[in-house]
């Protein structure tokens, strides 16, 4: 989704703004722009294409104060005229993430006041509103007055042509950070844009407005009171957002999974037993009261929740429901204060998941746990309990290491719940801890299959559709494989629990329909084998990811990828890896933009 970078310094900040936007490219965008204040004028450069084009266009631009933006179109087509920053009468410039819901009404009022609109965006009303108040006060006051008229979500950056050393920024419903330098300050919607200049960061809170100057800054809360916010030192380093030896971030992130899992499991694997405290101190009092679990998440994160349902019910014996966050928030459900509401989110900023959490709390759910990859994100801050996945920044739009680390975190939740409910004796606990310690090495072994998967991918390059099959806790893994394939290769892919095939989808099977099957050596194997026979008998081409000892043989129309031995309950994590690699290599064959698939954004901060 949209990205913001801003800076005030005693040096030319254009390259910093452009580099910051490059760091935000992964979030998804379709146009980019920047504005600097120079010689009491606003100098704006915009491009309907990539940030690289903006870099070329702004190569000779100079400014010590500026704001920049990558736009993911919501109101108005992707074009240069709709690209941010938006300006009012050459005096005020604004960049904005989020959606202003009452923009039509404001636009009508502002037009009546004589303001001329040059874009189709909702953002332009903010620029004109600030302009309309500017004559009566400072840029800070004018911005605060304008914000009080807005309904909706925003993170904004504002500069004025006649105010060469000051930037105003604000957030409500969209993330924004303040970067603290020495004699210079920055704002950005994402830490990765700031790492080039500082690791010292202030996470602005809901409703905060900040006046950013060269030497200092002042933060005001929603009521306009001056407030102090803690300065954090980010744990991220610049290398963690570099591509290094890899061709794409997705490939890099697939290969980072052993380390990401080791980091996520570090504290647990170094200890001798599992305790609720890993989810926060209050877990000791909350978890024993929990009667059932409700998981809310979107997309890939929802798939990890679906796997967890199998674990939680089978290992911990606790009822679990998994809902698509965007559906849950709008349906009438039956609240129960004894439910633990678990939100799962890589970014911690997904609007649907955040809104679902807020809705759950409003209906009386006080027990909330976030499983999230971004500390200080909105979802973390809205939740009582938390477990951070420590996957590191995920830049590729298609989620990979965030997913497998979510699974690891959910497995820990399962074990802690099982222990509290008397379903995990000491031997079993030690056995699971041993398996978790071994998990990174087991994932590494699966990654070694990469060349074989790259070969397999060639069969998919000319196909238009694919079916993915799985059973039990591997059905959500098949769904995740289908999602990965469709989002980065644009091949239509659907997943079915293999037993459902004969109830309809079998009609689709012919020689042009590759059928990918996740075939672990578990209790459902014989059933799955029968389902695969049904496909083979109809001339379908099978791609089977089979554990050792399944005895499924390669034959005409049946391609086998031999997986390592079955990994018990952790098998879904291992079976995810080849499906990620398959999608990646099919996308390479098709020449799509792997890290930035069309129409998609990394952090979906709008509804
Ligand atoms: C797919 C993908 C998305 C996200 C979804 C939720 O590869 O990444 O489906 O999983 O948009 O995002 P988070 O996890 O940030 O809440």
Write up what this structure looks like.
It is a single chain. The protein is of the alpha/beta class and 607 residues long. It folds into three domains: 3-241, Aminohydrolase, N-terminal nucleophile (Ntn) domain (Glutamine Phosphoribosylpyrophosphate, subunit 1, domain 1, 4-Layer Sandwich); 249-447, Glucose-6-phosphate isomerase like protein, domain 1 (Rossmann fold); 450-590, Glucose-6-phosphate isomerase like protein, domain 1 (Rossmann fold), CATH 3.40.50.10490. 34% of the residues lie in helices and 22% in strands. The protein contains 18 helices and 25 strands. Strands 3-2-4-1-10-9-11-15 form an eight-stranded antiparallel beta sheet, covered by helices on one side. It has a seven-stranded antiparallel beta sheet with strand order 5-6-7-8-12-13-14. A five-stranded parallel beta sheet has the order 17-16-18-19-20, with helices on both faces. Strand 12 and strand 13 form a beta hairpin. It starts with a strand and ends in a 17-residue tail after the last helix. The mean pLDDT is 93. The protein binds fructose -6-phosphate. The site of fructose -6-phosphate (F6R) has 15 residues, from helix 9 and helix 16.
Average pLDDT score: 93
Q: Termini separation (Å)?
A: 11 Å
CATH class bucket of the largest domain: Alpha Beta
CATH architecture classification of the largest domain: 4-Layer Sandwich
Helix content range: 25-40%
Specify the oligomeric state: single chain
Total number of β-strand segments? 25
What small molecules does this complex bind?
Answer: fructose -6-phosphate
| CATH superfamily membership of the largest domain | Aminohydrolase, N-terminal nucleophile (Ntn) domain
Gross morphology: globular
The largest sheet, given as strand count, sense and whether it forms a barrel, is:
8 strands, antiparallel
What's the structural domain tally?
A: 3
Q: How many helix segments?
A: 18
- Strand-pairing-aware structural class: alpha/beta
Strand order of the largest sheet: 3-2-4-1-10-9-11-15
Radius of gyration computed on alpha carbons:
25 Å
> How large a portion of the residues is in β-strands, by DSSP E?
15-25%
Uncertain spans? none
Q: What is the fold-level CATH name, i.e. the topology of the largest domain?
A: Glutamine Phosphoribosylpyrophosphate, subunit 1, domain 1
């Amino acid at each position: 989704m949209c990205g913001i970078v801003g800076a005030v310094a005693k040096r030319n900040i254009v390259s910093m703004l452009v580099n910051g936007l490059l760091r935000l490219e992964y979030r998804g965008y379709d146009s980019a722009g920047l504005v600097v204040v120079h010689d009491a004028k606003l100098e704006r450069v915009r491009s309907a294409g990539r940030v690289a084009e903006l870099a070329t266009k702004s190569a000779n631009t100079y400014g010590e104060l500026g704001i920049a933006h990558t736009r993911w179109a919501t109101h108005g087509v992707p074009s240069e005229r709709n690209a941010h920053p938006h300006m009012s009468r050459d005096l005020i410039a604004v960049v904005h993430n989020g959606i202003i819901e009452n923009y039509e009404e404001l636009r009508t009022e502002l037009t009546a006041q004589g303001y001329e609109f040059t874009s189709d965006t909702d953002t332009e009303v903010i620029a004109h509103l600030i302009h309309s108040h500017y004559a009566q006060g400072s840029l800070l006051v004018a911005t605060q007055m304008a914000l009080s008229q807005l309904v909706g979500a925003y993170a904004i950056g504002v500069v004025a042509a006649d105010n060469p050393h000051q930037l105003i920024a604000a957030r409500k419903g969209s993330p924004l950070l303040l970067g603290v330098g020495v004699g210079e300050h920055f704002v950005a919607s994402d830490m990765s844009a700031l790492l080039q200049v500082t690791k010292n960061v202030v996470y602005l809170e809901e409703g905060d407005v900040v006046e950013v100057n060269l030497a200092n800054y002042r933060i005001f809360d929603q009521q306009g009171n001056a407030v102090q916010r803690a300065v954090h030192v980010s744990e991220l380093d610049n290398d963690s957002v570099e591509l290094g030896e890899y061709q794409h971030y997705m490939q890099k992130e697939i290969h980072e999974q052993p380390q990401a899992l080791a980091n996520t499991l570090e504290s647990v694997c170094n200890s001798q037993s599992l305790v609720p405290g890993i989810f926060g101190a209050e877990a000791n009092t909350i978890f024993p009261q929990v009667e059932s679990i409700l998981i809310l998440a979107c997309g890939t994160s929802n798939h990890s929740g679906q796997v967890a349902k199998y674990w939680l019910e089978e290992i911990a014996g606790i009822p679990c429901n998994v809902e698509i966050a965007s559906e849950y928030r709008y349906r009438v459900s039956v609240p129960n204060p004894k439910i633990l509401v678990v939100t799962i989110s890589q970014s911690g900023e997904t609007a649907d998941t955040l809104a679902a959490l807020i809705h759950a709390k409003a209906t009386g759910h006080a027990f909330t746990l976030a499983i999230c990859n971004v500390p200080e994100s909105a979802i973390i801050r809205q939740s009582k309990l938390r477990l951070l996945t420590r996957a590191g920044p995920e830049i590729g739009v298609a989620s990979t290491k965030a997913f497998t680390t979510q699974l690891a975190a959910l497995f820990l939740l399962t074990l802690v719940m099982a222990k509290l409910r008397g379903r995990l004796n000491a031997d079993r606990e030690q056995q699971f801890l041993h398996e978790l310690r071994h998990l990174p090495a087991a994932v590494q072994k699966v990654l070694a299959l990469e060349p074989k998967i790259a070969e397999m991918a060639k069969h998919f390059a000319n196909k238009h559709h694919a079916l993915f099959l799985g059973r039990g806790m591997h059905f959500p893994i098949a769904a995740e494989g289908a999602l990965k394939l469709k989002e980065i290769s644009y091949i239509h892919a659907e997943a079915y629990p293999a037993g459902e095939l004969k109830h309809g989808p079998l009609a689709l099977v012919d020689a042009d329909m590759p059928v990918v099957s996740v075939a672990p050596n578990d209790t459902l194997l014989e059933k799955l084998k029968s389902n695969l026979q049904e496909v083979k008998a109809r001339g379908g081409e099978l791609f089977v990811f089979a554990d050792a000892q399944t005895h499924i043989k390669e034959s005409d129309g049946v391609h086998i990828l031999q997986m390592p031995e079955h990994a018990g309950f952790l098998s879904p994590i291992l079976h995810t890896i080849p499906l990620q690699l398959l999608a990646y290599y099919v996308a390479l064959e098709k020449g799509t933009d792997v890290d930035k698939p069309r129409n998609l954004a990394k952090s979906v901060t709008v509804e």
